[in-house]
Each structure stands twice: as structure tokens, then as C-alpha cells.
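ingest -> validate -> predict -> emit
validate: passed (alphabet ok, no gaps, 294 aa)
predict: started
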Amino acid sequence: LRPGPLPDHVLRWLYRKEELDVVYQNHESPAEEQRARKFACYFIQKLGTIVELQQNTIATAIVFWQRYYACRSVVASEKLHSGVDRMRMALAALFLGSKVANEPRHLNDIIIRAAPLYLRRSLEQKQLPKSEGATTASEVLEVAEERRKCEQYNEQAAKTLADERRKVVNAEFELLKYLGFDFEYESPYYMLSRCLRLCGADNDVAKDAWSYANDSLITNVALRFPPESIACAAVELAHKRQKRPFVNPETNQPWTVTWQVPLCDVKAVEDELEKLYQSQAQPPAQAQTPQPAQ
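emit:
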């Protein structure tokens, strides 16, 4: 799929699993940290769709946000960095990603459309815990606090747009400073298109593969593996779901062997996706097939 070794612009943003796990080990509530990260990624995905960005642009924004929080706690950083919280950083990442991908959107439009979405999505996440079982007293208090924060955010975005713009721009400066103005990112969609074409996948397999690739953005695999590993995992999972053989008929070996993609990386990506679906207690979402960047 890719002749020669991985280029430097891919390698310099790849982390070991142990490096990323330190954030959870040092956090007093790993589940809360995990929820905050998933929520922000879902939020960027949905908001990007609302403002009519291409999926490749949305993926860029999500990865920018993930890179900023790769080795820092989402929850703890709000207490350490006044004026920059997770949601304003999400808006900043989407705003920056749209400019990097030559699909700029007006910041006012992003902020105004984000406010009701943030309120609705956050309360859905808090009121419907997937894995903790029955709602406890502490969770009820957490929902009430989240409702207060969401309504406060909604009011600020509606009534003080200029102030909100300033805070989002400040968050963008923080993001630019951390990224070092390095905007290189290869999404898995180009490699996914190649994989589907090479293995002669039908429409059902292709649709599932695109959905798996989209869902991978909710996990941290974009920080751990190159795009070809994510693309191969998506295609292999799609073949399994459709009960189709994932074998090269010319060599009678799995396509991952033909494409010389490390099997351990593909398996790790698949495991992360399985964990995501188990935590949601639902199958992968059927998303529209995004158009890869030319």
C-alpha cells in the first residue's frame, strides 16, 4: 500500500499505547476521562456534519483535538488552563481544521450551531450511561452539574458571541502553539479507497468499511497507528460482518499479508473498535460514504 518506510510527518505524531495510558493511570476517575474524550469527538463529528464539512476535514479536526490532549487529562486541564476548556478547544480544532482543509467556515456560524448541540448531546451522554448500570446518586448530581454547565455555555454563546469568539480564538492559539503549526495528517480514507478497490469489495462491504473508519476517530487509534493499518482493519471487519472471505485469491493469503501491513497493528485497531461498540452496546453506525480528499 505504501512503498518504503513511513514518512516523518506520520511517525512524529504516533504514540505508544503506554504513553497514552499514563493519562488514565494518573486520573482519579478514568471512566470520566474516557467519557469526556468520546463526547468531544462525537461533538466535533456531529458539528462538522451540521456545518457541511467533508468527512476528511472533520477527521482532521478530531485528530488535531486528540493530539492536543494526547498526553494531558481533558478533565484536569480545564482546572489548570483558565479560559480553555474541552469544548472551546473542540470548536477551535474544527475551525482550524476547516481552514487547513481549504473548507473555511465562519467562526460565528460554528459557535451558534454548537450551543444547542452541546446541550443536547451532553445530557444524552450523562443520562444514558451505557456500562455503569443503574443511575447512582453521584451520577444524578453529575447530570445536574452538567446541565448547569451546558445551559451556561448555551447562554454565553447566544448572548455574548464576541466574548465567546475571543475565547475560541485563544483556544486556537493554544492549539497552534502545541502543534507547532504542523498540520500534516493523513486520514485513512485514501488508503481505504485503495484497499476496497484492490480486494474488489462490493457496496455492502464498502459501506461498512467506511463506517468503521469513521468510528475509529472516536478511539485513539489515529494517534497510535498509520492510516494503512486503520484502513485494513476497517476493511477486514467489514468482510467479517458481511461474512465474506478476506483472502487474496491469487495467493490464498489474507489481504493484510499481500499489502504488507503489520497484523499486530490491524488486530489492535480491531480490538479498539470492538471495545468502543461494547461500551455503546450497539453496532457501528451506518454513515454516508465520505468522499476522500483529492
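DSSP finds 14 helices and two strands in the chain.
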